[in-house]
């Protein structure tokens, strides 16, 4: 019954008939996908299948490339309002603050740890130093980095390890207080232990953010996904629900066939 | 077969490095040998006391001090004109221009960089003739005209290095600003420029070196032997490379030739100082960027 209610409520993100064309190539075609808070959706697929483009279609980051055209619609629930991401209801910077993103390799700025988080808060949101400090501490605590860096906030962020850098990027994104998180293979460049931390973070925070993640690892996907979206040649070829995922043999067998 | 080819290219690159270092060492050594004994307060200030010369209380007749000041002002004014325009044009080409605009403007920049400096000098000279005949009958060649023409000569270096530095930033870092909700300009100002600062500095250093050594442009746009200190921005001036050229061509005795070598050595020191200065500015900027 509860499950039923959840299905009836409008999704937090609803993608309809999404097509993305970059240059002369149709990278994504006819994508329909709904995302809800509390349900971690993981996109898998061979390289070049359009996973990154799908994520970047939700925060309209594909538009940074001049030869890209997007058709279809992406709608987002904002309070009790539904806004069309491509409809001009929100400005581009506003969309990107509400739909945060973390990249595959830690994209740190050549600044101090502190400034990496403070810069977008100051420049994009125009927050006062006191609010910036508060949000920074919250975000760093949230990703479990506070104790590791609280005594060296002024030292360059590049001195951190890869895993710490990626958690810093995550903290920088959540300090903007987004509703949606797009995580593009955030553990791909990390060692096993650092990857496990971020993986656990995603599992722990699925009730707080609407999360859409890309993963390169079928094992990781199986551990954390509530739903798996298999992408191939720009189309969704399979949606696996929880019951398909828990059955290890069936899951790997199916993936073997799909890839 | 493979190891032989490998070893061959290794030797070639090793030798090339050696040739460059040897040439530079030889050049500096030669200048030192010929010129170092000429470098003295007398070379700079002639018969004038240095305190009087530094504060401009007395003119310097037989020293290169006016030429040092002339070259420094030329480089500073040319940089003040060229660096903002060049960096801005590089940003435009890399971040705002369409592929078509980039192609067109890019070839114009290439054309500018292929312009011989004597042609640029002629351009400045003709400009003054034109101004004299039209709106400014009193226009004459001088420091600012020379600085403007030098700025045109060094612009392509600045544009090309800025553009290359910006385009060398990896894709995810380029998308970072947008993904954090920064507007395009905020992104350029706060993330792209700091990320490419080192590359841009390389262009500034090239431009400074080029501005300090040029003789052909200033020859036609305001440099004059024994002009003394420029009294204002529009006045005739002296410059170190021109002084070297002048002494090399018209020296009357061995002492004057030695003065020429000494002047060349001073020019080398002035450019080294300017490189150090721009490096220091970049360090300061980096420190300011790094602290919140």
UniProtKB/TrEMBL annotation, chain A:
Keyword ATP-binding: yes
Keyword Transmembrane: no
Assigned GO CC terms: membrane
Keywords, ordered alphabetically: ATP-binding, Nucleotide-binding, Phosphate transport, Transport
Boundaries of every ABC transporter domain copy: 13-258
Top-level lineage group: Bacteria
An example Gene Ontology biological process: phosphate ion transmembrane transport
Pfam families, per the entry: ABC_tran
GO molecular function list: ATP binding; ATP hydrolysis activity; phosphate transmembrane transporter activity
Entry protein name: Phosphate ABC transporter ATP-binding protein
UniProtKB/TrEMBL annotation, chain B:
Gene Ontology CC terms, in alphabetical order: plasma membrane
GO biological process: phosphate ion transmembrane transport
Subcellular compartments: Cell membrane
Alphabetized CDD domains for the sequence: TM_PBP2
Pfam families (alphabetical): BPD_transp_1
Membrane-spanning intervals of the chain: 12-33, 64-93, 105-131, 143-166, 261-281
Alphabetical keyword list: Cell membrane, Membrane, Transmembrane, Transmembrane helix, Transport
This protein's record includes keyword Lipid metabolism: no
Source superkingdom: Bacteria
Main localization, broad class: membrane
Domain ABC transmembrane type-1 as annotated: residue spans: 68-278
Keyword Ribosomal protein in annotation: no
Membrane topology annotation: Multi-pass membrane protein
An annotated Gene Ontology molecular function: phosphate transmembrane transporter activity
Family per similarity comment: Belongs to the binding-protein-dependent transport system permease family. CysTW subfamily.
The protein's name: Phosphate transport system permease protein PstA
Higher taxonomy: Bacteria, Pseudomonadati, Thermodesulfobacteriota, Desulfobacteria, Desulfobacterales
């Amino acid at each position: 019954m509860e499950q039923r209610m959840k299905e009836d409520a409008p999704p937090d993100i609803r993608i309809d008939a999404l097509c993305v064309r970059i240059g002369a190539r149709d990278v994504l075609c006819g994508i329909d996908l709904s995302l809800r808070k509390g349900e971690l959706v993981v996109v898998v697929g061979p390289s070049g299948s359009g996973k990154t483009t799908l994520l970047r279609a939700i925060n309209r980051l594909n538009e940074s490339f001049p030869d890209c055209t997007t058709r279809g619609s992406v709608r987002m629930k904002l309070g009790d309002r539904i806004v069309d991401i491509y409809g001009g209801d929100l400005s581009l910077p506003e969309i990107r603050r509400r739909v945060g993103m973390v990249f595959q390799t830690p994209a740190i700025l050549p600044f101090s740890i502190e400034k990496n988080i403070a810069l977008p808060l100051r420049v994009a949101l125009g927050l006062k130093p006191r609010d910036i400090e508060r949000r920074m501490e919250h975000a760093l605590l949230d990703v479990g980095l506070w104790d590791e860096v609280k005594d060296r906030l002024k030292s360059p962020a590049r001195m951190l390890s890869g895993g710490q850098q990626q958690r810093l990027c995550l903290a920088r994104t959540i300090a903007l207080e987004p509703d949606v998180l797009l995580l593009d293979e955030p553990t791909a460049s990390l060692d096993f232990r650092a990857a496990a931390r971020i993986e656990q973070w995603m599992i722990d925070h699925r009730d707080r953010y609407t999360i859409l993640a890309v993963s390169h690892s079928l094992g990781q996907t199986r551990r954390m996904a509530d739903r798996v979206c298999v992408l191939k040649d720009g189309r969704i070829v399979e949606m696996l629900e929880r019951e398909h995922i828990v059955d290890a043999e069936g899951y790997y067998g199916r993936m073997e066939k799909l890839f | 077969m493979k190891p032989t080819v490998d070893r061959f290219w290794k030797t070639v690159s090793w030798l090339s490095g050696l040739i460059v270092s040897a040439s530079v060492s030889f050049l500096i050594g030669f200048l030192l040998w010929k010129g170092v004994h000429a470098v003295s307060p007398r070379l700079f200030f002639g018969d004038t006391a240095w305190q009087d010369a530094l504060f401009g209380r007395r003119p310097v007749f037989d020293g290169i001090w006016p030429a040092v000041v002339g070259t420094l002002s030329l480089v500073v004014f040319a940089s003040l004109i060229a660096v903002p325009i060049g960096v801005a044009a590089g940003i435009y080409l890399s971040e705002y221009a369409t592929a078509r605009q980039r192609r067109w403007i890019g070839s114009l920049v290439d054309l500018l960089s292929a312009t011989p400096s004597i042609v640029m000098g002629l351009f400045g000279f003709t400009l003054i003739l034109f101004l004299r005949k039209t709106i400014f009958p009193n226009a004459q060649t001088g420091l600012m005209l020379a600085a403007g023409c030098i700025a045109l000569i060094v612009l392509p270096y600045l544009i090309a290095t800025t553009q290359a530095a910006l385009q060398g930033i990896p894709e995810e870092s380029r998308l970072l600003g947008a993904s954090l909700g920064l507007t395009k300009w905020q992104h350029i100002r706060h993330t792209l420029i700091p990320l490419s600062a080192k590359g841009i500095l390389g262009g500034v250093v090239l431009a400074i070196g080029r501005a300090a050594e040029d003789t052909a442009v200033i020859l036609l746009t305001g440099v004059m032997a024994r002009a003394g200190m420029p009294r204002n921005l529009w006045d005739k001036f002296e410059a170190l490379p021109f002084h070297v050229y002048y002494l090399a061509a018209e020296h009357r005795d061995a002492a004057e030739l030695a003065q020429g070598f000494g002047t060349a050595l001073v020019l080398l020191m002035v450019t080294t100082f300017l490189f150090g200065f721009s490096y220091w500015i970049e360090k300061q900027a980096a420190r300011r960027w790094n602290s919140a």
